[in-house]
Design a protein that fits this description.
alpha/beta, Rossmann fold, six-stranded mixed beta sheet, 49% helix, 247 residues
């Protein structure tokens, strides 16, 4: 997978959802995993020819697992190569989630706390936007998570405004498939997750279900994604209720 091909996905998402404007200062949330590292690399490359003038800052929220510390040196070196300022925010999230709270479903609380730490530091550093590494497969997986575990038809937006903190979240990789992200990440330094719940989450369970379905319906991911991004294909009960008086 070439940088040019990945940039075409990135540019398509940015353009379609008007994610970047002149004068933006964007904090890229970099966990060290493949998605966030690919996003950082592509945004740094895109910045060179983008019609919009914007600044980048990379932020890692260190969950601080004391018994298994994470070495973020590879990310620091990548940022130096890209000319992007890099900050590591030390937290006690790992201890709070696993040792103090002993969460049976640690991902929800961890995600909330990580996003809070990321957004607060981004705001402190003068950023008006935060970029996250979610891709097209994450969009469809989140839909299924909401459906299976919450009884809701819901997923995240490619761009959303957080009025309480006055920050805009953007997801520039929204048009890229995970297989493409994985292929491209092989050229980049990826830091292995030290989370005790890694690969044992509800999201991983849902991903495995879709992969199994994909054995019989190879384009299942494409069909789900198409249904989500094309509102004209939406046809649920609220539409019937709006039309009932016409019959």
């Amino acid at each position: 997978m070439t940088t040019q091909k990945m940039l075409s996905f990135l540019r398509k998402g940015i353009t379609k959802y008007k994610m970047i404007n002149d004068g933006d200062k964007i904090a890229v949330g970099v966990s060290g995993g493949k998605d966030s590292v690919v996003l950082l690399k592509l945004l740094a490359e895109y910045k060179r020819f983008s019609p919009e003038r914007f600044d980048l800052l990379a932020i890692t929220v260190d969950l601080n697992f004391e018994d298994r510390p994470t070495d973020y040196t590879p990310i620091k070196n990548l940022c130096n190569e890209l000319g992007v300022e890099y900050l590591v925010e030390k937290t006690e999230i790992g201890k709070i989630v696993f040792d103090i709270r002993k969460e049976s479903n640690p991902c929800a609380l961890c995600s909330k706390m990580r996003k809070g730490a990321l957004n607060n530091l981004a705001k402190e550093k003068g950023c008006n936007k935060v970029a996250l590494g979610h891709h097209a497969d994450d969009l469809t997986d989140t839909l299924l998570l909401s459906l299976f575990y919450e009884g809701r038809l819901s997923t995240f937006a490619p761009k959303s405004y957080l009025d309480k903190i006055d920050l805009t979240l953007i997801r520039p990789l929204i048009m890229a498939r995970e297989l493409d992200v994985i292929a491209y990440s092989k050229t980049l330094p990826v830091v292995k997750s030290c989370c005790p719940a890694n690969k044992m989450t509800k999201r991983e369970y849902v991903k495995n279900i879709v992969s199994k379905v994909g054995e019989d319906i190879p384009n299942v991911r494409d069909m789900m994604f198409t249904a989500l991004i094309h509102p004209e294909r939406y046809n649920l009960f609220d539409k019937f209720e709006n039309e009932v008086d016409k019959f």
